[in-house]
């Protein structure tokens, strides 16, 4: 069901690991926060102006990861997998302390984040959660890349198509409803790359912390990871995971159906910036309780799945 009230994490949870692109070790602490606080990062290694709001307008780079930056040029990068975990687990408010510039990549997915947050549990707050209700279909194109959103009365649905010339990745398409109870195939899907692109990425000064422990690497018609894939749609499922993290930067849980072809961090951010320029595209609503969905949307309760 769609929750009526805002949530935060019940107690502090701590993660440690290496940054995918920086290669630097960092510690992340997710702390409970009050209602209407939102998601805010705090760089504990920086003395002043060290708060960075998780908002699409603060995205300073979307090259191979999502980087947030405040007005004092303090930044935090590779935030998408952690934000996706917050979306999936239902956290609206949290203070995220980090002692370095990049969120650790963990195993390349959101699995560690989701499992630990779920184990700690959530706390309901007194204020109502605001949902972004999409009113009109909106499309955004960038060459062969495409993303659209249209009204959907029961939550966020994503239809994503991935097109690669590599025969292992190939053309993958999957549809995910984020109100489904079991999203393990989404949050456990790892980031991936082609073997021939590894050196190019490293020449850009990135992927210093990358390894087969935190990314799926494909060489010709072979997956180099000994354990293979975690699910048959792992490549496209990871792109859906990235999209969920990037869409949490809207500041809302979204009631809409998204279709995306060849998307990524840059396309998602460009889309959000364009979408929010026209207030006729959306409205915000609060729910009295899950039953109030009937009055908002006139749909039967048995069409609502349990929220993860």
Provide a descriptive summary of the structure in words.
This protein is an alpha+beta fold and 308 residues long. The protein folds into two domains: 5-128, Ribosomal Protein S5, domain 2 (2-Layer Sandwich), CATH 3.30.230; 131-303, 2-Layer Sandwich (lpxc deacetylase, domain 1). Helices cover 20% and strands 33% of the residues. The chain is built from seven helices and 20 strands. Strands 11, 12, 13, 14, 15, 19 and 20 form a seven-stranded mixed β-sheet that branches. Strand 2 (13-18) and strand 3 form a beta hairpin. Helix 5 packs parallel to helix 6 (265-275). The longest helix has 14 residues, at 234-247. It is globular and about 55 Å long. Mean pLDDT is 92; it is low at 291-308.
Q: How would you concisely characterize the structure shown here?
A:
It is globular and about 55 Å long. It has helices at residues 80-89, 111-120, 184-187, 195-203, 234-247, 265-275, 293-297, and strands at 5-9, 13-18, 25-32, 39-43, 51-53, 59-61, 67-69, 75-77, 94-98, 122-128, 131-134, 138-142, 145-151, 156-163, 171-177, 192-194, 216-219, 222-223, 253-261, 282-285.
Number of domains: 2
Give a short account of the largest sheet: 7 strands, mixed
Number of strands: 20
- CATH class of the largest domain equals Alpha Beta
The rounded Rg comes to: 19 Å
The CATH topology annotation of the largest domain reads as lpxc deacetylase, domain 1
- Bin the strand percentage: 25-35%
CATH architecture call of the largest domain:
2-Layer Sandwich
pLDDT under 50 segments (min length 5)?
Answer: 291-308
Termini separation (Å)? Answer: 9 Å
What is the overall pLDDT average? Answer: 92
Task: Give me the number of helical elements.
Answer: 7
The topology string of helices and strands comes to EEEEEEEEHEHEEEEEEHEHEEHEHEH
CATH homologous superfamily placement of the largest domain: lpxc deacetylase, domain 2
Q: What's the helical proportion of residues? A: 10-25%
Form type: globular
């Amino acid at each position: 069901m769609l929750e009526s009230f805002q949530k935060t994490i019940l107690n502090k949870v701590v993660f440690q690991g290496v940054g995918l692109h920086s290669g630097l070790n960092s510690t992340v602490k997710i702390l409970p926060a009050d209602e209407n606080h939102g998601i805010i990062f705090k760089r504990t290694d920086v003395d002043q102006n060290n708060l960075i709001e998780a908002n699409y307008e603060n995205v300073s780079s979307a090259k191979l990861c999502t980087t947030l930056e405040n007005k004092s040029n303090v930044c935090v990068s590779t935030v998408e997998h952690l934000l996706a975990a917050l979306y999936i687990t239902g956290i609206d408010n949290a203070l995220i302390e980090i002692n370095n510039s990049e969120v650790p990549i963990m195993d390349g997915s959101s699995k560690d984040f989701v499992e630990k947050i779920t184990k700690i549990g959530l706390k309901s707050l007194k204020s109502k959660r605001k949902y972004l209700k999409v009113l009109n279909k909106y499309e955004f194109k960038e060459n062969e890349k495409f993303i659209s959103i249209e009204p959907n009365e029961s939550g966020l649905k994503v239809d994503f198509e991935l097109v690669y010339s590599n025969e292992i990745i190939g053309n993958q398409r999957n549809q995910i409803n984020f109100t489904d109870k079991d999203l393990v195939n989404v949050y456990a899907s790892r980031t991936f790359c082609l073997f021939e692109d590894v050196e190019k990425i490293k020449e850009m000064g990135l992927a210093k912390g990358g390894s087969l422990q935190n990314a799926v690497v494909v060489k010709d018609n072979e997956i180099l990871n000994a354990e293979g894939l975690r699910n048959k749609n792992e490549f496209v499922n990871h792109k859906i995971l990235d999209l969920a993290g990037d869409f949490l930067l809207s500041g809302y849980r979204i009631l809409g159906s998204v279709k995306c072809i060849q998307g990524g961090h840059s396309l998602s951010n460009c889309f959000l910036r364009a979408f929010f320029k026209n207030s006729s595209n959306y409205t915000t609503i609060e729910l009295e309780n899950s039953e109030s969905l009937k009055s908002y949307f006139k749909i039967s309760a048995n069409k609502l799945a349990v929220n993860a």
